[in-house]
From TrEMBL:
Family in the record: Belongs to the type-B carboxylesterase/lipase family.
EC number of this enzyme: 3.1.1.-
Domain Carboxylesterase type B: start-end pairs: 36-370, 403-512
Signal peptide start and end residues: 1-29
InterPro entries per UniProt: AB_hydrolase_fold, CarbesteraseB, Carboxylesterase_B_AS, Type-B_Carboxylest/Lipase
Keyword entries, A-Z: Hydrolase, Signal
Keyword Hydrolase included in the entry's annotation: yes
Organism: Novosphingobium guangzhouense
Name used for this protein in its record: Carboxylic ester hydrolase
PROSITE patterns: CARBOXYLESTERASE_B_1
Gene Ontology MF term list: hydrolase activity
SUPFAM superfamilies named among the record's database cross-references: alpha/beta-Hydrolases
Length: 546
């Protein structure tokens, strides 16, 4: 996800989806032998490239392209091909308006025909289904309006060099990915609707389950990993009843954990509650399309992609007075049953080994205008909050407001998720591993007082050379190697600890510990320096939760 200021306003799926989601496809095509690495998947044979023992395959269709009559439909089985299909270039990233200060700028042109996947694997493992290597599947962030799988910092080679198969893919964004309309609900019948971007994610995971063995991967050892909206997507996939058997571990990076974005109901009989269907009708009306029947839907599908896009990105969510975008996942009652924090508290979340955390200078949404207004939000704990966040009363309001906003939006919700998983995991042995990423690249230390949102990605991926180029230092490289090894160990075993690494203690519910990935390129399990404030934020969140 793009870096924003710390305080900003801004198995199969199941019988109900069997006809809509990807099913086993065409027999593999025959192709001539080539020096490039090749793999045979269920739609044909693909040819990739290899560098220093790592094979990569890019731009592989995992579904039919969602254009024309397939706009706002569940992903369909990709067409097969004959011969050998080149897979050396990324496909289009999904339709969006790029965000100028994005921390992960796109490497491919956005378009609607974007449902492709990419694989990095040890070259010696490709075509060897007996290898059974662990797999990690990356889900990018971008607020569900930006992002893609092509950025250089999302390269999976560092994982592949350590005998992990790495997969990334694209999913639909904005109104292409999250859109409802009464005619769409009628068309879908008993199948899910509205959450087309999440359906793409499930379809990609189904593709992994069917095909990853051809790249040396083990479909029974799949970790889903995402940051920001990708982290929230991981939570949605954990909570969905339609994702059984598709993964066994999770990594959630700055994905919140309490209500973050989306969460609008598909239908509503209450005139005071705006439904996702009503938002779709609003958008249609703005395009001169009235009615709620199949004719209206046909007209919507004929709109130019730019009209559907409507300029949405991380800096512009549309005219708030018109309410023409649902802002992310919709509670449709099938794929998404509730907000993810509700699913956690009600015991409906899959409990698997999980790494979850945030950055030290993460995002937050400010609402108060003064310190008095800010601390009044803590109710009976107002005095305690003032003593913790502004003990001498001399901190600038912007700093105090930012500290509280960051804790409320990202840091405490990550701790909340870790605690709930730790408690529920007592029954099945699944542990939660909670972290705070505080390392700042040395070239940025004069600009950033802490680690901003999304800056942990190139360190977990060990792609800091692509991110910082000539400004990369030996300390930056050391930090990336350390943090990436934690991620690799976890993908392999469900435990980030390993030989030569500082011990990472598992999290206990309502504990005060955290694994601090420190500013000096170190790592240690310590008492959380923000623990007092986080306890107050947790109490506030629990009082505010119905």
């Amino acid at each position: 996800m793009a870096f924003l200021p710390r305080v900003c306003a801004a198995t199969a799926l199941g019988t109900v989806l069997a006809s809509a989601f990807i099913l086993p496809g065409a027999a593999a095509a025959k192709g001539s032998a080539a020096s490039a690495p090749q793999a045979t998947i269920d739609t044909g044979r693909v040819s990739g490239s290899a560098i220093d023992g790592v094979a990569s395959f890019k731009g592989i269709p995992f579904a039919k392209q969602p254009v024309g009559e397939l706009r706002w439909r569940a992903p369909q089985q990709a067409d097969g091909w004959t011969g050998v299909r080149p897979a050396t270039e990324f496909g289009h990233d999904c339709m969006q308006k790029p965000f100028p200060s994005d921390a992960a700028p796109l490497g491919a042109t956005p378009a609607e025909d974007c449902l492709t996947a990419n694989v990095w694997a040890p070259a010696k493992a490709v075509g060897n289904s007996g290898r059974k290597l662990p797999v990690v599947v990356w889900i990018y962030g971008g607020g569900f309006v930006n992002g893609g799988s092509s950025p250089a910092v999302y390269d999976g080679a560092a994982f592949a060099r350590q005998d992990v198969v790495f997969v990334s893919f694209n999913y639909r964004l904005g109104r292409f990915g999250f859109f409802a309309h009464p005619a769409l609900s009628v068309e879908a019948g008993a199948a899910p609707t509205a959450n087309f971007g999440l359906m793409d994610q499930v379809a990609a995971l189904q593709w992994v389950k069917r095909n990853i063995g051809q790249f040396g991967g083990d479909p029974a050892q799949v970790t889903i990993m995402g940051e920001s909206a990708g982290g929230l997507s991981v939570l949605e996939l954990l909570a969905s009843p339609l994702t059984e058997g598709l993964f066994d571990k999770a990594i959630i990076m700055s994905g919140g954990g309490r209500k973050l974005m989306g969460g609008m109901p598909l239908h509503s009989d209450d005139p005071a509650v705006t439904s996702a269907e009503q938002v779709g009708v609003n958008f249609a009306a703005g395009q001169g399309i009235g009615g709620t029947d199949a004719g209206a839907l046909a007209a919507l599908r004929k709109l130019p992609a730019e009209a559907v896009l409507g300029g949405l990105n991380l800096a512009f969510r549309g005219d708030p007075n018109k309410q023409e975008y649902v802002n992310g996942p919709v509670i449709d009652g099938k794929l998404v049953l509730s907000d993810t924090d509700v699913a956690l508290r009600q015991g409906r979340m899959k409990i698997v080994p999980t790494i979850v955390g945030a950055t030290s200078w993460d995002l937050g949404f400010a609402t108060a205008r003064t310190k008095d207004e800010l601390f009044a939000q803590f109710g009976p704990d107002a005095g305690k909050a003032r003593a913790v966040f502004d003990p001498a009363g001399d901190k600038p309001f912007e700093q105090v407001s930012g500290d509280v906003a960051r804790d409320r939006l990202m840091i405490e919700p990550a701790q909340f998720v870790a605690g709930e998983i730790a408690e529920a995991g007592v029954k099945n042995g699944a542990k939660a591993w909670h972290y705070r990423f505080a390392y700042v690249a040395q070239s940025m230390r004069k600009e950033w007082p802490g680690a901003p949102h999304a800056t942990d990605i190139p360190f977990f991926f060990d792609t800091v050379a692509a991110k910082y180029g000539k400004d990369l230092t030996s300390a930056d490289a050391k930090a990336a190697s350390l943090f990436n090894r934690y991620a690799v160990n976890f993908v392999k075993t469900g435990n980030p600890n390993g030989k030569g690494l500082p011990t990472w203690a598992p999290y206990a519910r309502h504990g005060r510990g955290v694994q601090m990935l420190g500013p000096d390129a170190s790592a240690a399990s310590i008492e959380d320096p923000a623990a007092d404030g986080l306890e107050l934020v947790r109490a506030l969140a629990e009082r505010s939760t119905p």
